[in-house]
Every structure is written in C-alpha cells, then in structure tokens.
Amino acid sequence: MFELPQLPYSFDALEPYIDAKTMEIHYSKHHATYVTKLNEALEKSVEWAAKQLEEIVKNYQSAPENIRGALRNHGGGHLNHSLFWPSLSPQGGGEPQGKIGELIAADFGDFIKFKEQFINASLSIFGSGWAWLVKDANRKLVITTTPNQDNPITQGFTPLLGLDVWEHAYYLKYQNRRAEYIEAWWNVINWELISERL
Ligand code: MN3
User: Fold this and answer.
1) So what's the pLDDT on residue 172?
2) The pTM is what?
3) Residue 74 CA, ligand 1 centroid: distance in Å
4) Beta bridge partners of 129
5) Would you call 169 helix, strand, or coil by DSSP?
6) Ligand 1 centroid distance, CA of 77 (Å)
7) If you average pLDDT over every residue of the chain, what do you get?
8) How far is ligand 1, taken at its centre, from the CA of residue 91, in Å?
9) CB atoms within 10 A of CB 99
C-alpha cells in the first residue's frame, strides 16, 4: 500500500509565491486522492501491487485493462507529486550552483536561456500537464512536457525538476494567470535537491 509522503514544510511556507490554501488542498486532497485510487486499483492485482512506484508508472501499458488507466493516472499522479513537493523550498530560488548549474549552462547556453525555454514549454501545455527538466540516456539535459499525470520516465528520461501546471496548482491565487504562477515558482525551486537527483 502506498502512503502520502510527508510534506517537508508547512502549508504556508512557500507564501507569497504559493499560497497556503492551495498547498493544503493540493497536498491533502489532490495528492491524497491519487494515493487512495492507486491503492484501490492495486487491490485488484497481486502482481502489480508488488511493484515499485516507478516500475508501475513506467510499465502501466502492460497492466491488465481493468487497472491500466488507474495506474497511469493515479500512479503518475502519486509519483509526480512525490517529486514535486521536495523540489520546492522556502529557502529555494536563485540560480542553480554546482554541477546542475554547469550542466544547464552547457546544454542551454545560460540560465536565462534555460528559464525562457522552460517557461515557453510550460505555457504551451494545452489543458493539464507538467513541464520538466529531465536527463536523457546520454546524460544531456532536456526540457519536455507531459499531458495529465504522465511522467517522463515513460519517454525514457530521468525526471529532475517538474512543474505542475494543472489549474489546481495555482487557480485560487492566480486564476487564469498561469504565466504569473510560473514566474513565482522560480523563487522556491530547491536547486540543491535537483542537483542531488543528477
Ligand atoms: Mn497537482
């Protein structure tokens, strides 16, 4: 049985960039529901219930039809949000230092160019989904997007940093202004953790 991981800070820790009410609902309702529904689906398959979360998300296409959709959406939802919370920090923001900073400069030119490309990718997502900084099989950094709760491990990438652009992630504070939410998010990115994920 999967469990909702602990939030590494309080609901209001990321104010004013991400408001406390949004954090509370996003974590204790949305993420919690992905966990509950993933567990409900896994009750129907002893084989799939024995797998690790990444394995489930990566291979959901070979799961029995009666749980395939639930594994994709709720497994993906659980994995994506488990990656998302620790990627944020009240002490975050600024420009990435060390290895991650060097790789971003090497693969995108500089941090400003990377940021521009990432913002454009985030804004281009139609409806609900995620924008990602990922590592490909050749250890090159790439920006990609996924629809709904899909995770880039299904595209053969290693996810480093994901941005949730579902309306539930920002609508209470930013309403239709996704661009403002995206701009605010840069102030709370936990680059130290992203560097560890390399
Ligand atoms: Mn979400």
Assistant:
1) 97
2) 0.97
3) 11
4) 147
5) helix
6) 7
7) 98
8) 21
9) 12
CA–CA distance, 115 with 143 (Å, rounded to integer): 10
137 vs 95: CA distance, rounded Å: 25
pLDDT at residue 155 in the model: 94
As a whole number of angstroms, the longest Cα–Cα distance in the chain is: 49
How many angstroms does the Cα of residue 81 sit away from the middle of ligand 1?
A: 6
Taking the C-alpha atoms of residue 132 and residue 87, their distance in angstroms, rounded to an integer, is 12
Query: 145 with 118: CB under 8 angstroms?
Result: no
- CA–CA distance, 58 with 77 (Å, rounded to integer): 13
Residue 58, amino acid: K
Got the DSSP string for 55-107?
A: HHHHHGGGS-HHHHHHIIIIIHHHHHHHHHGGGB-TT--S---HHHHHHHHHH
The pLDDT-based confidence of 106 (bands split at 50, 70, 90) is very high
- CA of 169 relative to ligand 1 center, distance in Å: 5
